[in-house]
Amino acid sequence: MSDLLAIGEALIELNQPREGAPFVQGFGGDTSNAMIAAARLGADAAYFTAVGADAFGQALAELWRREGVDASRIAINGGAHTGLYFVTHGPEGHAFSYMRAGSAASRLGESDLPVDRIRATKILHASGISQAISSSAADAVFAAIDVARDAKRLVSYDPNLRLKLWPLRRARAIIHEAMGLCDIALPGLEDAQALTGRSDPGAIVDFYLRLGARIVVLKLGEAGAVAATPKRRERIAGRAVAAVDATGAGDCFDGAFLAEFVRHGDPFVAARFANVAAALSTLGYGAVAPLPRRADVEAAMEDAVGRRVPPR
Q: For position 312, what pLDDT does the model report?
């Protein structure tokens, strides 16, 4: 049994650190990033997607092998390409441009699912992007959630709203349905505000708890996070770092939270751990390269504790 299994879309990333600089090849895809983060932090992580029978697909497969993520059941589609996206940086932050229409991942359907692997994982993780890329992919994620729930496995979901992929009304309908089926809800603040129509973090947490999630962790970016269950709520302060690129910070938070939660089952400890891991992931460029290792996160947490202890 694996600790974690994510379903979604992985892409090749071309990241331009500054205007006029050459693009640097990397890797992306929210659920893939999350599983790589989880693996670097000690979890037994697995990933399911489809890639093209091309050099980019081979590069992704090699990435997962190198990072210790089990991708042995990915589908390879000889009639479709592997997705690609570009990241540029400017005064307003980072911007994304995608070449994903008709990608191998977008052609996934229910019949492609590794049902046995879903039944044998502790936590199934998916996202709004996993469902936004196509109607067949949306149906496949719902089918995977049904399999996991039938096998009494936990389901984790990050709305990760991308309005370039689908209109808000459709996104709301599908994401709310999925969030109502999940045990662990991992929304980001801006996405949740658009989806729920609420602005206050407390009201957003209440919304997702009422939908049925047992655990809600609302990511607030630089401001930290709010972790909640029906009986307890904790505000986690942001971690100040010299950030240069927040491309995969939310994905890192998801992977770090799940990796830590699966170790002991305490969502508040896991959220504090993930908060630090996500901050550290912004210290370098790209979605994957700066993802921290467990030793890095633990050292940063110990350093923070040490600074709070008054000298004798």
A: 42
Answer left, alpha or beta for residue 228, where phi above 0 means left and psi between -120 and 50 means alpha: beta
Give the H or E element holding residue 282.
Answer: none
Domain ranges of the chain: 2-9+31-50+111-305
**First-to-last CA distance in the chain?**
48
Residues paired with residue 90 on neighbouring β-strands, in sequence order? 93
Hey, what amino acid is at 99?
M
Question: Which CATH code fits 2-9+31-50+111-305?
Answer: 3.40.1190.20
Q: What is the pTM of this model?
A: 0.93
Kind plus residue range of the DSSP H or E element containing 32: helix 30-40
Return the residue matching tokens 């890192």: 252
CA within 13 Å, CB half, 170 = 13
Q: pLDDT at residue 311 above 60?
A: no
| Pairwise CA distance, residues 268 & 275, whole Å | 11
The answer to whether residues 244 and 211 touch, using CB atoms and an 8 Å cutoff, is: no
Rounded Cα distance, 185 and 213, in Å? 6
Taking a C-beta distance cutoff of 8 angstroms, is the pair 130, 161 a contact? no
Share of the chain above pLDDT 90, in %: 82
Rounded CA separation 126/229 (Å): 20
- CA–CA gap between residue 77 and residue 119 (Å, rounded): 24
In whole angstroms, what is the distance from residue 188 CA to residue 136 CA? 25
What span, in angstroms and rounded, lies between the C-alpha atoms of 51 and 272? 34
Q: CA–CA separation, 57 vs 51, rounded Å? A: 5
Q: Which two tokens stand for residue 153?
A: 């496995």
What's the CA gap between 159 and 188, in Å, rounded?
A: 8
